[in-house]
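Summary of Year 1 activities. Much of the first year was spent building the evaluation harness for sequence design. The harness presents a backbone, in tokenized form, and records the residue chosen at every position. We chose the following record to illustrate the format because it has been used consistently in internal testing since the harness was completed.
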């Protein structure tokens, strides 16, 4: 780890800015420690350390946990995650599932932090007296501890907290009390009349599918629609985000395709990236910070890096499947292009063998300099398969202040340096890319489109909002759930779908976007088939979710699930094709899923079928039409035909 420490040392030579200390400081030993131990130690003691965090000393508070980094920033209560969690600004509110701290208790902790988070415990006092020649400040002690640590993740989180101090604050949202997102969005609206809010039934179905990837059960839907308490939408969002296993299962297919995770390391003699399904699922299960997750894919020094396991090719253990493939020139430039696409939202592939024809930002040499960071040595300029004998020195393509100029010689150290630069807060392209992906996932369109083509000559539709979201995301420890909650609780997300306002042409990315209506989004294969399971059984069986089924079928392919993940992909096609209609009309798999549904064995009423499929009661007209149909088509077959018609309808196949 000596090389790794040397690589990060220049990032740390910047101290904390302390505020003036009041005349009568709050005692950590007498006031703060007893409070934290009484209210928080059940989960965050030296023995339990939930999420790697304990509250037993100033040192452990400064060290923080796995999710948000340092819990306390001396002199800066507004930047201290501990206060955000205690006040409920970050979710889940702490102490979890226990009474919240009082305003006076939170105020005492806030004042202690504002006074510099001084440590007056006996051990600290003794240490200070014994070393009169040199007294380390809390920040210096934290730095000193990190520099002697062998844990690259701790170093990364500390480096992040230091670098975040030098970010320039983005433009604030327009004044008002509404969600900051709404203030940015509505500032561009040219109409004085606010678009209509979605009904409770529309919102219910939308947020279930968006957060956990399935529709609600009848019981869940009826309970929500019958609830008349204020703030019930926010409560539902929090409850769904707290369903960690279902939340993780919903994100897993996206990231399997984004990093080309496969259940085999070799396909047709071509080395692939290996199986990352469990790694992805477990990361989202614990809501791992996004920058840490990205670094773990690339940096061999990270403690949770998935070390490649050798596999046979041509009868010999000669290949090492991994996200980073760099055994030759072609594999290396493909890995670099994949990394840029997924984590920087930047299309570089066209610059791999010539200057980019459509984006002058990317001459071939700039891309090859980036790609050389993945390799054991600098890459040669090979222009349209012709060797030139010229080599490009490895360098990061975006300017970052105060980073080391040296270039490590060995591949693991180069990848370590690359991960540092890729996730550095002072280049916000990394954070802008992921918040834009979240925006597109929940609103249907990105703030910049296409989401894999971030470029200087094509500004975002709302550049101030994109800047603010990226900054807020970084300041909250790269917490995906924090930004997701921010989006889902906005009025913008909760607007009703209006087809008259859904007219953006992605082929014309510079066309204005106002987000007066969410876009119509087709359910993925996983969402549709898993939701059929919920409607049929009135429960979700986690082991039967589609993402866990390795086999590809005619139906899943027709619904857009790829037969194999041989290439990186961050979005599925949403076009409508004849093969989809044929599978829904005549396909054996869809027929079996519908006509063998357990709900049909109950001889359900029209009303119950509508609740099961659409999560709402039917209208009078729907009840009348349904009952007339069942009179003409009595028995189990008629019920099956009706259920099939509901499942095959656009009302079920799309998120509105």
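For this record, the design step produced the sequence shown next.
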């Amino acid at each position: 780890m000596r090389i790794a420490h040397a690589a990060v040392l220049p990032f740390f030579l910047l101290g904390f800015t302390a505020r003036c200390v009041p005349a009568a400081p709050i005692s950590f030993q007498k006031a703060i420690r007893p409070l934290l131990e009484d209210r928080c130690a059940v989960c965050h003691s030296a023995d339990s350390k939930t999420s790697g965090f304990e509250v037993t000393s100033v040192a452990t508070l400064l060290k923080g946990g796995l999710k948000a980094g340092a819990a306390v920033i001396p002199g800066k209560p507004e930047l201290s995650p501990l206060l955000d969690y205690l006040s409920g600004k970050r979710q889940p509110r702490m102490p979890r599932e226990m009474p919240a701290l009082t305003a006076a208790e939170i105020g005492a902790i806030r004042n202690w932090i504002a006074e510099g988070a001084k440590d007056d415990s006996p051990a600290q006092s003794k240490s200070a007296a014994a070393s009169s020649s040199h007294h380390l400040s809390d920040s210096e002690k934290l730095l000193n501890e990190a520099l002697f640590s062998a844990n690259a993740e701790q170093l990364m989180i500390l480096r992040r907290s230091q670098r975040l101090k030098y970010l320039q604050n983005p433009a604030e949202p327009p004044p008002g009390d509404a969600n900051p997102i709404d203030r940015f969005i509505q500032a561009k609206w040219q109409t004085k009349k606010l678009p209509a809010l979605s009904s409770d039934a529309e919102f219910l179905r939308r947020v279930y599918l968006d957060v956990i990837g399935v529709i609600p059960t009848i019981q869940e839907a009826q309970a929500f629609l019958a609830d008349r308490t204020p703030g019930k939408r926010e409560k539902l969002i929090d409850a769904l985000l707290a369903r960690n296993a279902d939340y993780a299962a919903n994100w897993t297919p996206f990231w399997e395709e984004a990093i080309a995770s496969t259940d085999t390391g070799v396909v047709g003699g071509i080395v692939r990236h290996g199986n990352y399904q469990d790694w992805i699922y477990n990361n989202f299960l614990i809501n791992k910070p996004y920058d840490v997750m990205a670094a773990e894919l690339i940096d061999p020094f990270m403690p949770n890096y998935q070390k490649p396991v050798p596999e046979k090719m041509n009868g010999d253990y000669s290949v090492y499947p991994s996200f980073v493939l760099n055994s030759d020139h072609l594999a290396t430039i493909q890995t670099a292009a994949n990394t840029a696409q997924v984590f920087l939202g930047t299309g570089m592939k066209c610059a791999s063998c010539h200057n980019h024809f459509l984006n002058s930002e990317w001459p071939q040499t700039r891309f090859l300099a980036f790609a050389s960071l993945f390799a054991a040595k600098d890459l040669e300029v090979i222009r349209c398969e012709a060797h030139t004998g010229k080599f490009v020195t490895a360098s990061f393509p975006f300017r970052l202040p105060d980073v080391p100029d040296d270039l490590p010689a060995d591949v693991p150290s180069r990848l370590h340096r690359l991960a540092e630069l890729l996730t550095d807060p002072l280049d916000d392209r990394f954070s802008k890319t992921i918040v834009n992906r979240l925006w597109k996932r929940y609103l249907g369109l990105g703030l910049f489109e296409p989401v894999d083509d971030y470029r200087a000559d094509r500004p975002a539709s709302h550049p101030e909002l994109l800047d603010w979201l990226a900054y807020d995301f970084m300041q909250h420890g790269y917490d995906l759930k924090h930004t997701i909650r921010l989006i889902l609780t906005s009025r913008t997300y909760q607007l009703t779908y209006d087809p008259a306002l859904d007219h953006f042409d992605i082929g014309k990315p510079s066309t204005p976007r106002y987000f007066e209506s969410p876009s119509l989004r087709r359910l993925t294969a996983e969402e549709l088939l898993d939701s059929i399971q919920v409607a049929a059984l009135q429960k979700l069986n986690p082991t039967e979710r589609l993402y866990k089924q390795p086999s590809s079928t005619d139906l899943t392919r027709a619904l857009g699930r790829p037969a194999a993940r041989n290439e990186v992909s961050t979005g599925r096609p949403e076009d409508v094709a004849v093969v989809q209609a044929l599978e829904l009309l005549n396909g054996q798999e869809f027929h079996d899923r519908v006509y063998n549904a357990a709900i049909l064995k109950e001889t359900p009423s029209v009303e119950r079928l509508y609740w099961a499929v659409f999560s709402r009661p039917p209208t009078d007209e729907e009840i009348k039409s349904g009952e007339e149909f069942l009179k003409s088509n009595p028995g189990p077959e008629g019920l099956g035909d009706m259920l099939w018609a509901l499942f095959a309808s656009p009302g079920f196949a799309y998120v509105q």
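Residues 329-344 form the longest helix (16 residues). Quantitative recovery figures across the full test set are reported in Table 2.
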